[in-house]
Amino acid sequence: MKVYNLTCEHDHRFEGWFSSEEDFKSQSEARQIACPVCESHAVRKLPSAPRLNLSTAQEPKIDAAVVQKQLLELVRKIVANTEDVGERFAEEARRMHYNEAPERSIRGVASVQEFEALAEEGIDVVPLPLPDALKQPLQ
Ligand SMILES: [Zn+2]
């Protein structure tokens, strides 16, 4: 699998995934590659990022399973180090912000509206999609 940095005539940059250089060429010639922004077919390949002269270096492979595992570990760590305030998340975040509650790391659920209201008040909250597996109580 090859990942190419592509650009269209309007300088919209995007990535294309191809099984090989030939695959890219044939799709390009058949005008099967379109810019995701303007749908232009005038797409060309950008020169790949300059690399250090390590001719034996392998292309880094992105393994979806590894990424998933790292994400799970990160989420687990966050879950282990935060207090679950559940539905009271927005309320608690606000109380902490206004020094009405002790400063601590909390997690919980907030609606989009609550989330936006918090952001407007300058309260930092980070949305974190929690995999279903981790919604169960931890062992
Ligand atoms: Zn474009």
Can you walk through the features of this model?
This protein has 139 residues and is an alpha+beta fold. The chain has 2 domains: 2-45, no CATH class; 64-135, no CATH class. The chain has helices at 21-29, 64-80, 89-97, 112-120; strands spanning 2-8, 13-18, 43-45, 83-86, 106-108. The strands form 2 sheets. It has a 3-stranded antiparallel beta sheet with strand order 2-1-3. The protein has a two-stranded parallel sheet with strand order 4-5. A hairpin with a 4-residue loop joins β1 and β2. The two termini are 39 Å apart. The model has no long low-confidence stretch (mean pLDDT 83). The site of zinc ion has 7 residues, from loops.
Supply the helix-strand structural class: alpha+beta
Give the count of structural domains.
Answer: 2
- What is the percentage of strand-forming residues? 15-25%
Beta-strand segment tally: 5
Write down the overall mean pLDDT. Answer: 83
Largest sheet: 3 strands, antiparallel
Structural shape: elongated
Uncertain runs with pLDDT below 50, 5 residues or more? none
- The radius of gyration computed from the alpha-carbon positions, rounded to a whole number of angstroms, is 23 Å
Small molecules bound in the structure, each named once: zinc ion
> Share of helix among residues?
25-40%
Instruction: Give, in spatial order, the strands making up the sheet with the most strands.
Output: 2-1-3
Number of helices: 4
